[in-house]
C-alpha cells in the first residue's frame, strides 16, 4: 500500500458534490424529466452518428418528442450541448473521486481509461467538454485537480516515472481525443492500444537507453492555456 500526505486542499476536494445540478434547481415533473432524458439520450445518439452539425429536428425525431417539447426543455441547440457537457463533466469528477480511493497508485490509469471511454462515445462534444463551454466549471476544475493528485500518488507508488508532469497527462487526453475523433466509427477501440503504449512508456525504468530523465521540457500551464484558446 502506498501512502501520501494529504493537504487540507485535497481533503476539501473530497467534499461530496452530489448537490450539483445541470439545470434549474426546481425539480421537473415526472413526464418533463422523462422527456428531458429522452432528448439528451437522443442527442448523444445523433451527435455520435453525425457530429454537432446535426439538426435539433433529427434529435426530436429520435427522442420521439415534438420540436416544441425540445425547445421548452432546451431553448437553443447550444443549451442542449451545454447540458450534455455539464453531465459529462460531472461524470468525470465522479470518476476522479472514485479513482482517488485506490491507494495502490492505480487510480490515474483507471481514471484515464474511464475518460477515454467517455471521449469515444461523446467524440462530437470533445471541444466543448475540455474548454469551450461554461457548463459545470467546478466539476471540470475538480477533475483536473484530482488528476494531478492521482499522478503524484502513482509516482509515489512507483507506477509512473517521476519526471512526468500534469501537463503531460493533459497532452495524453489531447492525444486520446484526436484518436477518438478520427477513429470512432471505423475502430472505436483504437485509443485503448495507444493508451497501453503510452502507459508502458511512463513506467519507471532503471536501466537501458530510456533510464535517464526526459530530454524535452514539459509544457507549462501557461502554454496549455494558450493552446486551449
Itemize the secondary structure elements and their pairings.
Blueprint: H1 8-13, H2 30-50, H3 56-63, H4 67-73, H5 77-100, H6 107-121, H7 126-130, H8 137-156, H9 166-183, H10 190-202, H11 221-228
Helix pairs in contact: 2-3, 5-6, 5-8, 6-9, 6-10, 9-10
What string, H for helix and E for strand, traces the elements in order?
A: HHHHHHHHHHH
Overall tally of structural domains? 2
Largest sheet: none
Beta strand %: under 5%
CATH topology of the largest domain: Tetracycline Repressor, domain 2
**Shape label:** elongated
What's the architecture of the largest domain, going by CATH?
Orthogonal Bundle
Mean pLDDT: 85
Instruction: Quickly count the helices.
Output: 11
Number of strands: 0
Radius of gyration: 20 Å
Fraction of residues in H or I helices: 55-70%
For the record, the CATH class of the largest domain is Mainly Alpha
What class do helices, strands and sheet pairing give?
Answer: mainly alpha
Spans where pLDDT lies below 50 across 5 or more residues: 4-24
Span between N and C termini?
A: 40 Å
Amino acid at each position: 500500500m502506498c501512502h501520501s500526505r494529504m493537504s487540507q486542499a485535497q481533503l476539501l476536494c473530497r467534499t461530496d458534490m452530489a448537490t450539483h445540478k445541470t439545470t434549474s434547481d426546481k425539480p421537473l415533473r415526472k413526464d418533463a424529466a422523462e422527456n428531458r432524458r429522452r432528448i439528451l439520450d437522443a442527442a448523444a445518439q445523433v451527435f455520435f452518428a453525425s457530429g454537432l452539425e446535426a439538426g435539433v429536428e433529427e434529435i426530436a425525431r429520435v427522442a420521439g418528442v415534438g420540436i416544441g417539447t425540445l425547445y421548452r426543455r432546451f431553448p437553443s441547440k447550444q443549451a442542449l450541448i451545454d447540458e450534455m457537457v455539464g453531465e459529462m463533466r460531472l461524470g468525470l469528477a465522479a470518476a476522479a473521486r472514485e479513482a482517488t480511493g485506490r491507494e495502490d497508485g492505480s487510480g490515474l490509469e483507471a481514471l484515464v481509461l474511464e475518460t477515454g471511454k467517455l471521449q469515444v462515445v461523446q467524440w462530437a462534444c470533445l471541444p466543448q467538454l475540455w474548454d469551450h463551454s461554461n457548463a459545470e466549471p467546478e466539476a471540470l476544475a475538480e477533475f483536473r485537480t484530482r488528476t494531478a493528485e492521482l499522478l503524484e500518488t502513482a509516482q509515489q507508488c512507483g507506477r509512473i516515472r517521476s519526471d512526468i508532469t500534469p501537463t503531460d497527462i493533459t497532452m495524453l487526453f489531447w492525444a486520446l481525443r484526436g484518436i477518438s475523433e478520427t477513429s470512432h466509427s471505423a475502430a472505436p477501440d483504437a485509443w485503448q492500444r495507444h493508451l497501453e503504449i503510452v502507459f508502458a512508456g511512463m513506467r519507471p525504468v532503471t536501466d537501458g537507453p530510456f533510464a535517464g530523465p526526459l530530454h524535452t521540457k514539459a509544457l507549462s500551464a501557461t502554454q496549455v492555456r494558450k493552446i486551449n484558446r
